[in-house]
Specification:
This protein is of the alpha/beta class and 233 residues long. It is built from 7 helices and 10 strands. It is globular.
Length: 233
């Protein structure tokens, strides 16, 4: 009998924000998969091991997920990752795949999830606290109220039109495009705040577009609130 693959969100960075279910599944299962070549150096592992010290003694399965837009390289590594997971599941053991935030939102886990579902493996997604909810809470403010819409946008792609959408905009994964993102925010006179590495020891908060550094790290998330005065004009 094959094992079950659990895609488990470990939250945005603070180990206290991991769910009870995530903690239980890590404790109960022997094989833990993590997206990264060096498991113990990954952010997901470093978060989870603080909440579940037993993780350090588990069988750790590295699943390399390169940060690139090269479709051929991505396809190759996603297929390799899926095959590694299949081999582990074929032993009859369950596999818990750790992923940052929530597995349903721009998650590396989904690339292998789709492949294993297509191959007939049993899978279960276990939700985690999303980075944008954690950032909003850390900023001590809400995301949306009343009839305001919420837009979650991958900032590493073209965002010019997305910034014109009504309501609150969340920009995720700006990465190396931060300089361009900042320029567009300034050009549109947007009111935005950003947290880099939310919930982690090196967390940094920027409360205006002007403060946002052009060399901000990968785990940076921007929240753009609609200008109330403009909407009332």
């Amino acid at each position: 009998m094959r094992g079950i693959l659990y895609g488990v969100g470990v939250g945005p960075g603070d180990p206290e924000l991991m769910t009870l279910k995530a903690v239980r599944l890590i404790k109960e299962n022997d094989i833990i998969a993590v997206p990264g070549a060096e498991v113990r150096e990954t952010v997901a592992y470093k978060i989870a091991v603080q909440a579940v010290p037993e993780l350090a003694d588990k069988e750790l399965l590295p699943i390399y997920m390169p940060m690139t837009h090269d479709k051929a390289e991505l396809e190759l590594n996603h297929e390799k990752g899926a095959k590694a997971l299949e081999a582990a599941l074929d032993t009859g053991k369950n596999v818990v795949f750790l992923t940052l935030g929530d597995p349903t939102v721009y998650s590396t886990y989904l690339y292998v999830h789709h492949r294993l579902v297509a191959q007939g493996y049993d899978t279960e997604i276990v939700c985690g606290i999303t980075s944008f909810c954690a950032v909003s809470a850390r900023l001590n403010t809400g995301l949306v109220e009343k009839a305001e819409p919420l837009h979650v946008i991958p900032a590493s792609y073209q965002i010019e039109d997305a910034l014109k959408l009504p309501g609150t905009k969340v920009l995720m994964k700006a990465g190396k495009k931060m300089k361009n993102v900042k320029e567009q925010l300034l050009a549109q006179g947007a009111e935005a705040m950003m947290i880099e590495n939310c919930g982690m020891p090196d967390e940094k908060i920027y409360r205006s577009v002007e403060e946002i550094p052009e060399d901000a790290g990968y785990y940076s998330l921007i929240i753009i609130k609609e200008n109330k005065e403009r909407t009332q004009e």
